[in-house]
Amino acid sequence: MGDVTGNREHYTSLCRMCDNRCGINVYVENGTIVEITGLKEHKWNHGRLCVKGRLAVDMVNAPDRILKPLKRIGRKWEEINLDQAYDEIAEKIKKIQSTWGDRSMSVWKGEALGFLTQENLYRRFIHAIGSPNYFSNDSQCYVGRWLGYALVTGDWATQDFIKSKCAVIWASNPPYSQPNLTQSILNGRERSGKLIVIDVRLSAIARQADEFVQILPGTDGALAHGIARQLIEDDNISHAFIDKYTIGFETYAQYVKIFTPNLVEKHTGVPAETVVHLAREIGSRRPKVAFYAGNGLEHHENGINNVRAIACLDGLLGNLDHEGGNFIAEKPGLRDLTLYKDKPLRHLGPIGADKYSVLYDFRKECHTISAMDSILNEKPYPLKGMILAGANPALTNPNSQKVIKALKALELFVVRDLFMTETAKLADYVLPAATFLENSELHCHPIHQIIGLSTEIVTFPECDSEHIFLKKLASRLGIENYFPWKDNDELNRWLLQDTTITLETLRDHPEGFEYKPRRFLKHQKDGLTTPSGKFEFVSKYLKGHGYSELPEYVPPAYRCSPNPEYPYVMVTGARKVFYTHGRNRNFKQCRSAIPNPDIEMHPIDAEILGVKTGDIVTLTSTVGSVDIPVKVVHKSKILPGVTQVTHGWQESNINLLTHDDRNDPIDGFPLMKSVEIKITPKQDGSRNH
Ligand code: SF4
Question: CA separation (Å) from 665 to 120, 243, 305, 548?
């Protein structure tokens, strides 16, 4: 029990409503969480709690939360006993294994229920039953950026904004996606820095920037190469870093020569003089320059090379692992839950690993988009069963119609979630799950190299944590030896076993415990974790896999071969402050603040189309169509011809328009942020879903 004052108990924990893991105080009355506030002592948020964090109270107590196991009987749901649900699911898994083979089972881990430990538990479970098919939302969000950086530097560094002299936020809007990260960025700028934002929209962070550079969607690689060319021409580069710690500089420098300011302007819409100015502003502050590469970069057919192009700037500026630059955090040394060493299962053909081997080699991620083909066409082999936890691919994967058809075709589809999502509606079984306030889990915070422990504060009888769910299922499948820990505490102790940290230490340090003092410039002694051990302007690894060794810029299709039938370009997925991805749409206060999806449109386009804010238009791509209300924005917010539509809305599911067959050739990421569409005003104002 936490500290008690009157009828109020007080606990400390970590918020997991987004990836920032802020320290929180949680107050409980009569067994119910009634209030959450920011924890002043926590090194990351210093007492701040954002609006998303406050929503955790609504989430845990939501009246529409799933608290009982549900089984589909025809078109209806029937509440069943938890043991019965687990027994039946285990029997169906065994049947799939014996009929189709172990690899026809799969798991899919989303983020609504937790992050790293859950991810590794699911990886462990699926390998324990003999299948390599671990899926997650990472194969179409986040990993594109991680991979782009990892191919160049060996890792995706975090940003030392506090000590930086220049923060460059590229295609991201932290005030809405990671609210408390924004404070570090602004504090850094306050001290001695400069904030530059590069994006297609005048976002919340762009409005606070010293310089905002508006760019056409999917052309970021050209701008990065233009900046690189200018830095090299001005000899404003770190020769000490380039000479000692990089490979391929000459080849790269030769390649970027073609990206003159005028050519960059032609590709990106960024004025030539701005390209030169940007390079000089950034170069004059090196090496204390921190780049944050956002999700806007990775959802293009050329996404990974756009990220590589930006990552290459670190090599020129010498900011990699430098104080005030892009800092490569060390890990705390937790034990590995996965079985890739003992049971690699690569020979069983993880789905998507043949086509996107880079994604699998680096991240051990199967490809969710390819999973739909395996279900529907049984190629390369049939995928028949899936346990999906805290994800909503019916709304968030491209080509939703196909996704829905595929998930319906599974022989066994089990969804674990807090709410009846569009994906859960397709399941055979929907199982109640625990929120982060009902689960004790280890969390690391790389920028400060601190580790913390979330607290199990309340419990609901049938809402098992993912660990306990998998443990119970494993015992029914005869693989209980892979889940020997009796509870989450025992699991956490096992994870910490190779460190000097104990659970008791973590409980004594709700503000986070520094697992290692930060060290900068580690590559000078240890090298980098790339194949060459050096910073790679060119990648021999990619060349060996049939790709260009250079981060070559390929213009997006809407620029190099425009289709006059689909004259607008659509960007999807800009964040909203109340919503995290497709979540929170069922919370009343979120809906009253932001009730509808909409399409952001430049006033010139609105005039051409003859529409105003609130009018309904039909958006059509070569994949499908959807109706949505218009929001005419200020002319500075978005460029004419470019539109932005928020994702995650069942009412206007934008992934009915997105392609599942136009993927980045290296990592398989889908085209979601430079989609060609046409826009037709609805004369009668009605809206079809
Ligand atoms: S930024 Fe907000 S939502 Fe994210 S962890 Fe912190 S308080 Fe929670």
Answer: 27, 31, 10, 11
